[in-house]
Design brief:
single chain; 2-enoyl-CoA Hydratase, Chain A, domain 1; 17 helices
């Protein structure tokens, strides 16, 4: 029981130095902490010594810590310090892998993204491939695939995939692991030879240098006639707060106030720019949506407060809190919510409840009147609001069932080199037959629940009404296809292009009809859809 003695020693030392190290704790709090630690230790020891099973002490401790963090806010986490952890990736410039992202669809794992020129892409793998085995072991949809795909640089991993849908091929790929750069910039391009567009999905240790490098490339490509920069922060969930500050610092003079961080003890850290900027005059536009959060919001509200950037899009998340990383051991850490951000003009943009149910304090109320650019229920309000177009119930149901994905896999199998046009009526017609077949085989409403409902009431009239309702719902969806033709063809083209083209070409296809980008370009004097992506020299 050496591990228990070790833990007892650590807790004993912690109890003795607690009051000396933290003057902010009163005697009652210290007594509660000591009592809680004793209860945790006693429970831990009893479970290991007396439970019928042979409990692994380290795994039990892991689960105990997870239980504590899971009972707090959504952003406080217990992290296994491996490169497969998304938060840990933000702290590293590179990791070793093959350059893919995967998603779970029911009981299957599919590739949904391939990094351009990555080992996986160069080997011939495609978006839509279903991963069956890794190193001859059948994958479990609940396991961490990244831990199996990553490893030492130059080592090989064997991946068995299934390609197609109605007709399937099983293929093996043996891929050399390589250093993968984890860039926050996922796409960038010069538009109409004068406007630099940068898609920033998260804030990493590389972001400052990546922005500088991209800006310099734009300057050269535009023959030093660069008129503006667009930072697209849609779906940017945040990342490193310091990285957001670094980007702010690039476009404002030295000595400007970025904002302040305030902790639970009302201690404040005020942040001012110190490094020389790259450009304090160029016009800047930020595109945001309701998935722009945390560090993305800190940058947005700071630039908005100084009128340094025009904000276009939809209300942001309203996550005005930040986390720090604290090591527990050489391989494990805690990510803890510790501070809230206040903008240069004093705006508290947070609407996230970070107080657990057993907190002694109520959540801090946000004053919705503190600024006419901020709404307590909607995060940051853009200067120009753009409504994101929503899909119809039919398309949402098709997406939910992965029908577009399945059809694209089937299409690629039989049309390996064919890329459809946007007005391809045969494509739409074939998809309609394919999708209707899916609706007939899978009712919209769960069969198991309905059958249970029928058994419970055992009434012929109720049963016939339920069957009639299902038929009516299915017929509604089937008859809605022609009305949704334009959106259906666009989604189909996107899914098929994902399997044929580079990420750059796919992104250009998406953006050419993007209402957010079109509204943003109007602020630069481009008033129609005839914009173009300038080709790199």
């Amino acid at each position: 029981m050496r591990i228990i003695k070790y833990i007892i020693t650590i807790i004993f030392l912690f109890m003795n130095v607690l009051s000396a190290q933290n003057d902010s704790l009163n005697n009652i709090q210290i007594m509660k902490i000591n009592s809680g630690l004793n209860n945790i230790l006693r429970s831990y020891q009893l479970l290991i010594e007396e439970h019928l099973s042979n409990i692994d002490p380290e795994l039990l401790a892991d689960e105990a810590i997870k239980g504590m963090t899971n009972s707090l806010d959504d952003y406080t986490e217990y992290l296994n310090e491996s490169e497969s952890n998304p938060y840990m990736k933000l702290l590293r410039k590179n990791f070793i892998g093959i350059g893919i992202n995967t998603e779970k669809q029911e009981d299957k794992i599919y590739i949904n993204y391939l990094l351009d020129k990555s080992p996986a892409q160069l080997s011939g793998m495609k978006v839509g491939d279903r991963i069956l085995k890794i190193d001859d072991s059948i994958v479990d949809v609940n396991e961490d695939l990244n831990s199996k795909l990553q490893g030492e640089i130059g080592t090989k991993v064997k991946i068995t995939i299934i390609r197609g849908f109605k007709k399937l091929d099983t293929l093996d790929f043996i891929i050399d692991r390589a250093k993968i750069s984890d860039k926050g910039i996922t796409f960038y391009s010069l538009i109409n030879d004068s406007i630099g567009y940068i898609q920033l999905k998260n804030f990493t240790t590389n972001t400052r240098n990546d922005i500088i490098s991209t800006y310099n490339e734009f300057k050269i490509q535009s023959n030093y006639n660069l008129k503006g920069i667009i930072l697209d922060l849609r779906n940017n969930g945040g990342g490193l707060m310091k990285s957001a500050y670094d980007v702010f610092e690039l476009f404002v003079p030295v000595g400007k106030y970025f904002g302040k961080m305030i902790n639970k003890y009302n201690q404040k850290i005020e942040i001012f720019t110190k490094k020389q900027p790259i450009d304090t005059n160029i016009s800047i536009a930020l595109i945001v949506n309701n998935n722009t959060a945390s560090a993305g919001e800190f940058l947005t509200v700071a630039l908005q407060d100084y009128n340094r950037a025009k904000v276009i899009g939809y209300y942001t998340t309203g996550k005005g809190i930040s986390q720090i990383l604290r090591d527990i051991s050489s391989h494990k850490s805690l990510k803890i919510t510790t501070e809230r951000f206040i903008s240069p003009k004093g705006r508290d943009i947070n609407i996230i409840n970070y107080n657990p149910k057993f907190s002694s304090e109520k959540s801090i109320a946000i004053d919705s009147q503190q600024s006419n650019s901020m709404n307590a229920r909607k995060g940051i309000i853009p200067d120009i609001i753009v409504q994101d177009s929503s899909y119809s119930p039919l398309i949402l149901e098709l997406l939910k069932r992965n029908v577009f994905n399945d059809f694209a896999n089937d299409y690629i199998y039989f049309n390996i080199d064919k890329i459809p046009t946007e007005s391809d009526n045969n494509l739409f017609r074939n998809f309609r037959y394919f999708a209707i077949d899916s609706f007939r085989n899978l009712n919209i409403i769960s069969n198991s629940e309905l059958e249970e409902f029928k058994k419970t009431y055992n009434n012929q009239v109720i049963s016939s009404k339920i069957d009639e309702l299902i038929d009516n719902i299915n017929n509604y969806f089937i008859n809605s296809f022609d009305n949704e033709k334009k959106d259906i063809i666009k989604i189909l083209n996107y899914e098929i292009l994902l399997r044929h083209k580079s990420n750059v070409e796919v992104e250009e296809f998406i953006l050419k009809d993007d209402s957010f980008l079109i509204a943003t370009l109007k602020t630069f004097g481009i008033y129609n859809k005839s914009f173009y992506f300038s080709k790199k020299s």
